[in-house]
Amino acid sequence: MEWHFGPHTLAFEEPDLVRLTPQGEFDLKEAREMILRVREFQKGREALYLLVDARHGTGFSAEVRRAISEDRSLVPYAGVALFGASFTLRSIANMIERANALLGKPSAYQSVFTKTEEEARAWIAAQRAARAAAR
After folding, report:
1. Contact at 8 Å (CB) between 54 and 83?
2. Which residue from 5, 44, 83, 122 has the fewest beta carbons nearer than 10 Å?
3. Considering the entire predicted model, what is its pTM?
4. Each residue of 119-129: pLDDT tens digit?
């Protein structure tokens, strides 16, 4: 299954993987449309993992960042792996995560930046295995 939201692509892979390929910046309308699809895929699943091909993404608009900060249900993932992100995108994400922690809003999920898709998928597989072992 694959959908397009503006220039961005969203796909689902069984059993629990959401793959996002952003092109440029995400705006609030695109993010809200995307989360509706994700919530449908989430039904009946204990956890979801997000795999982001960040090679052509430039981040989220200020509106999206604010919405995510205020409503954590917009990021319903047990883990997020981003591959191919620029130094700038990694730096911005790190600053946002630190700011949220200082404001008492620590991330509800684990995340990692990797160079390759293979590394990102391996990280997700390890997160999935750790979650299964903890049950």
Report:
1. yes
2. 44
3. 0.85
4. 999 999 999 99
